Amino acid sequence: MIRIALPAAFILALAACAPAAETPPQGPGEQPAAYMALGTEPGWTLEITPSRLNYDGDYGETKIMAPNPGAKPSFNGERYVTDRLTINVTHAKCSDGMSDRRYHDKVTVTADGKTVKGCGGKILPPTELAGTNWIFVSIGGTPVAGDRPTALQFDGNRLSGSAGCNRFSGTYSVDGGTLKAGPLMATEMACPGMELEQAFFKLMTAPVSLTFADDGTLILTGSGGQTAVLKRAI
User: Fold this and answer.
1) What is the predicted pLDDT for the residue at 176?
2) Which CATH class is domain 2-16+126-232?
3) 197-217: string of b/e by CB count within 10 Å (b at 16+)?
């Protein structure tokens, strides 16, 4: 084992926690991005595009596609009504019931008279890093190979993981919006493609801004613009 001192600071800019309302697609041309919702027991998914409503229910046995009639205002949300679908989106935090993911909205769908409930909209950031696990997607703009085991885990006051080769671990603390990590311990193996791992270690030697995309992706950005992108492991 070798000791790698990695003083790190993450500026916890949790912009995704901002209370600004998120509005599902209203109609053609108003919002190009699709709005997604899902539920369990029975499993179902819903996609709202500017032009269509696409519902897949009963674990795929029920499929309904209908023109998007446009959203009508409802109590703290929006409502879509077609012959076969009634969709109510309520802007209130929601848990999917199968993981610790939290979403921006509660969603109720009535399809051919059968009502199901679930969550939709953007995935909210975790309330704290402790207890969360992440998988590297890219480092420095270069995708991390899917056959290389990667992880960044926060457990209590310790973090650990691998950026594709060596395991590292150490303590961390969060104080006043700053995360300080290390000193970290790392193994000393040689692996093909260690450039990405070295790029990550270099990134961690300076303050890094922490942001969350609407799909829950974690983005670490250094002062020079270099990034590490991670997805949540549930």
Assistant:
1) 59
2) mainly beta
3) bebbbebbeebbbbbbeeebb
